[in-house]
Amino acid sequence: MIEAHHLSKVYDRGLYALRDLSLTVEHGEFVFLTGPSGAGKSTLLRLLLRQELASEGELVVDGEHLSDLTASQVQAYRRSIGFIFQDFKLIPRKTVLENVAFVPRVLSASATQQRRKTFQVLKWVGLQHRMNAYPVELSGGEQQRVAIARALVNDPMLVLADEPTGNLDPDLSLEIMNLLREINARGTTVLVATHDRELIRRVGRRAITLDHGQIVEVMDGDRGDGVVVRPVTAV
Ligand SMILES: Nc1ncnc2c1ncn2[C@@H]1O[C@H](COP(=O)(O)OP(=O)(O)OP(=O)(O)O)[C@@H](O)[C@H]1O
Ligand SMILES: [Mg+2]
Predict the structure, then answer these.
(1) Cβ distance 220 to 201 under 8 Å?
(2) What pTM did the predictor assign?
(3) d(CA 161, CA 213)
(4) Does residue 18 line the site of ligand 1, with CB under 6 A?
(5) Whose CA is nearest to atom 1 of ligand 1?
(6) Over the stretch 190-203, which tens digit does the pLDDT of each residue have?
(7) What 3-state DSSP class applies to 107?
(8) Domains of the chain in sequence order
């Protein structure tokens, strides 16, 4: 699903945010990216989202060479990815329902299909009863569940999450990870950047540690001992 070949990203003054990084993430895998602040985790996610281009090397996602995409291909490519941020990035003046429905429309989907899909994902994250609430009326964990619903409404092939539990307590963090594991169990590839070594241990998936833009350690997950804290129904 993801192939990085000798990837480097150089910012001003010769700072290498990523340096000669090569990795492969298989289709359907769940992989953590970890490492200290400034290691290059968010940079790699930005390159994967095609917000920025690599300075050197190649990044291939689902067969697409990201450096070769035209502007319209970039739009289509981004629509095939779900992105989840640490600070949720919900639109404050829109309701839960509107936040989830307010994603680039899949051209083939009718308004009815879009609405049905929106209800489905909100139900799946357990928030259908709050769909008319505004983000400010929700707890942090609820806001992150809305962000996850929004990332899933277009059935992405790949979900990228940058510190999705950075603002949440350990129980809520595990709950959010369980949602991501459920998504993964349905075949979506998931890549999560996190500082939280304890969470990685509990979830028990492959973890790639970056430092100064390079891979310094790869741990194979033992599939963890994290318990599903809330029953979830499949979409
Ligand atoms: N737009 C930019 N311009 C210049 N330098 C940048 C830019 N974005 C990131 N960097 C630098 O690149 C390096 C990697 O940053 P990155 O944000 O990828 O780290 P990170 O692993 O996500 O860190 P954190 O855990 O703090 O989120 C850092 O040294 C950072 O200062
Ligand atoms: Mg970061």
Answers:
(1) no
(2) 0.89
(3) 18
(4) no
(5) 11
(6) 999 999 998 899 89
(7) coil
(8) 28-50+81-219 (3.40.50.300)
